[in-house]
Amino acid sequence: MSWWSSDSDESSLSEQYDESDIRIRPNPKANKPRTKTRPDHADAVQGMVTGVDRGRYTVLINEVPVTCSRARELSKNAIVVGDIVNVVGDITGVHGSLARIVRVEPRTTVLRRSADDTDEVERVIVANADQLLIVIAAANPEPRVRLVDRYLVAAFDAGITPLLVVTKCDTNDPSEFLANFESLNIPIFRSGTDQVPVEDLQKALAGHTTVAVGHSGVGKSTLVNVLVPDAKRATGHVNEVTGRGRHTSSSSICFKLETPFGDGWIIDTPGVRSFGLGHVNPDKILGSFADLAEIAEDCPRGCSHLEDAPDCYLNESLSSGILGKNGAQRIDSLQRLLLTFKAN
């Protein structure tokens, strides 16, 4: 017999087996018609995100912390502390319960940073804050003018009001350091180990949502614990060899601030040693100095407003004295902020 089949054999096989004998397993997902229509979640309730941890979000709803996941359609949207969100599902807050975030309300402000000055990809730190509490130590670790400048740039870019707190003032006099910022009219608070200006800070923070930022080891979490006794934020120390602080806060978290002057919110963030500004438009920096911006309107097109800029009206105003005795300091502050974009 030949090793191949004859035509008659193939015909008999086709008659014995045809496509109608193939069993197709039903696939409900494939057979279900797809639609872009999504439920409107009319029963969703509103709350504020107070914490984010490994894909789970703590949302405060009617004073009750509720653990939430986020809806699939929000998978490409960052949800951060301070966001106002709409939630459906189990909002009892009972241990083991899980609700779901289905919408994020438009943000009033966004505090951002990038990995470095060359990276335009932004990372949202917090949303809807209206004040930035910059915490710096008078010593151990040594205060860095450049880092404070970067915080100020981020605050001006986001439209957030900056405040400055200097800790550990009982170990070193910060006057020389603070002289760099006197002309910016930023509220400044001095704090010591046992002398924290609690009342002054309460007055400044009441009625606001304030995000606290600072270098690791400056005492930021310690300050939050003083203002919010129930916060119980972990605190660390500064390495005596490297002079660097140890990271004690791994994620941002928001606390309700109750004071005799009114309630507010304070957001503690992880300590950082760098603050990239690759996402910031330098043109916004000049706008934060209203008096200097008015003078700079007569500068040549494309003027950098730096010390070596030709025909810069800001530099020429120094000799005319039209800005008063603090004019030199204000221009120096502006130029130092602009230089942060050229440092690297």
Question: What would you note in describing this structure?
Answer:
The chain is α/β, with parallel strands linked by helices and 344 residues long. It has three domains: 45-104, Nucleic acid-binding proteins (OB fold (Dihydrolipoamide Acetyltransferase, E2P)), CATH 2.40.50.140; 110-268, Rossmann fold (3-Layer(aba) Sandwich), CATH 3.40.50.300; 283-339, no CATH class. The protein is 24% helix and 24% strand. The protein has helices at 7-16, 28-31, 145-158, 175-178, 198-205, 220-227, 283-287, 290-296, 313-320, 327-339, and strands at residues 45-53, 56-61, 64-70, 84-89, 99-104, 110-114, 122-127, 131-137, 161-167, 188-190, 209-214, 253-259, 262-268. The protein has a six-stranded mixed beta sheet with strand order 10-9-8-11-13-12. A five-stranded mixed beta barrel has the order 1-2-3-5-4. Strands 6-7 form a two-stranded antiparallel ribbon. β8, α3 and β9 form a beta-alpha-beta unit. It is globular and about 100 Å long. The model is unreliable at 236-248 (pLDDT under 50).
Over all CA atoms, what is the radius of gyration? Answer: 29 Å
Given as residue ranges, the uncertain stretches (5+ residues, pLDDT < 50) are 236-248
How many individual domains? 3
CATH architecture of the largest domain, by name, is 3-Layer(aba) Sandwich
Order of the strands making up the biggest sheet: 10-9-8-11-13-12
Defining key terms:
cytoplasm; 3 domains; OB fold (Dihydrolipoamide Acetyltransferase, E2P); five-stranded mixed β-barrel; EC 3.6.1.-; alpha/beta; 344 residues; RsgA_GTPase_dom; 24% helix; metal-binding; Rossmann fold; six-stranded mixed beta sheet; metal ion binding
